[in-house]
Design a protein that fits this description.
Blueprint: E1 8-12, H1 16-29, E2 35-39, E3 42-46, E4 56-62, E5 71-79, H2 89-104, H3 108-118, H4 135-157
Antiparallel strand pairs: 1-5, 2-3, 3-4, 4-5
Length: 159
C-alpha cells in the first residue's frame, strides 16, 4: 500500500455478518468499482485500469465491537500507482460511502434480496486477491513499450 488518503469512520447498526453484506452490496452498486475481495476483516474494491488511470483501491476495515449489534468500519482509498496524477481515489470512496449510506437503514433482508437481484448477471466479487486487477503491472508494460519505441526511433534516425 502506498499510503492511504483520509479515513472515513462509520458505525453500522448491524452485526458483523450483516455489515459485510451491506459493504459487499455497496461495492456491487458503486459505479466504477470493477472487482472486490474479502480477506479476513477487510474487504477491498478496485476500479481497475482505465484510459485515464492505473486504478484506485477502496479498503473497508471491519473492527470488532463490544456491542454485537453494531459494527465499526474504516473506509480508506488510495491510488493503485502513486505517481498516477489522474487517479482520483477519493471520488470512488465517496461513491462507495454514498451507496453504503443508501443501504444501511434498510432491513437487511431487503438489502440481501436487492443485492441478489443486482448480481443475478454476475457478481463483482472475486475469490482470490490475486484475481484483482493490478495497475502496477500495467505500468511495467507501458515502460517497456516506451523504452522499445525509443530504441526503435534511435535506430531509425541513425545514418
Amino acid at each position: 500500500m502506498y499510503g492511504h488518503t483520509n479515513v472515513t469512520q462509520l458505525v453500522l447498526d448491524h452485526p458483523e455478518e450483516d455489515a459485510k453484506i451491506l459493504v459487499k452490496g455497496a461495492f456491487e452498486r458503486t459505479q466504477g468499482i470493477k472487482q472486490y475481495h474479502e480477506e479476513g476483516r477487510q474487504i477491498m474494491g478496485k476500479t481497475g485500469v482505465s484510459l485515464g488511470s492505473y486504478g484506485e483501491s477502496i479498503y473497508v476495515d471491519i473492527s470488532e465491537s463490544p456491542d454485537e449489534d453494531k459494527t465499526p468500519i474504516e473506509v480508506t482509498a488510495e491510488k493503485e500507482v502513486q505517481m498516477n496524477v489522474t487517479a482520483n481515489a477519493e471520488k470512488y470512496k465517496r461513491r462507495f460511502v454514498d451507496e453504503l449510506d443508501s443501504l444501511r437503514d434498510e432491513p437487511i433482508e431487503e438489502v440481501y434480496e436487492e443485492i441478489q437481484q443486482d448480481v443475478s448477471a454476475g457478481s463483482k466479487e472475486v475469490e482470490n486477491e490475486s484475481d484483482l486487477s493490478n495497475g502496477s503491472s500495467i505500468v511495467g508494460v507501458v515502460m517497456v513499450i516506451t523504452f522499445l519505441f525509443f530504441m526503435i526511433m534511435m535506430f531509425a534516425m541513425m545514418p
